[in-house]
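Field reference: "sequence" (input) and "structure" (output). Example, DUF779 domain-containing protein:
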Amino acid sequence: MIEADVVIPGESLSRVALTEPAVTLLRKLWGIHGPLMFHQSGGCCDGSSPMCYPAGEFFTSDADVLLGRFDIAAAGEEPQPIEFWMSKEQFNYWSHTHLTVDVVPGRGSGFSVEGPEGLRFLIRSRLMEEAEPFI
């Protein structure tokens, strides 16, 4: 499991993590697509799953919150940073929640880069024990 760096000012606990299967898939996808990013929206259907895009292909704005930054590189390799973003609207509901990105068999969204792999990213969540400030 890889925990994201803490990036929200004033907080001391990671808000998002990657399982080892997610890291393995992300390394493969990085080799195909180059640098990557995640965005979690509050929509229905595929919008409820974390979407993985080539970095810069999905434009974030003031309507989004950066929840964390990962480095998925194997030890001794060049850094492979991945940012995890969430819409502010969704963050208002999930501000007390720690998210773990996992991988399960199935078809991802046509817009998320894992779609053709026969796997999809999935969020597993739990309540955070503490974090300040909750927004």
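Helices lie at 20-33, 88-94.
The longest helix spans residues 20-33.
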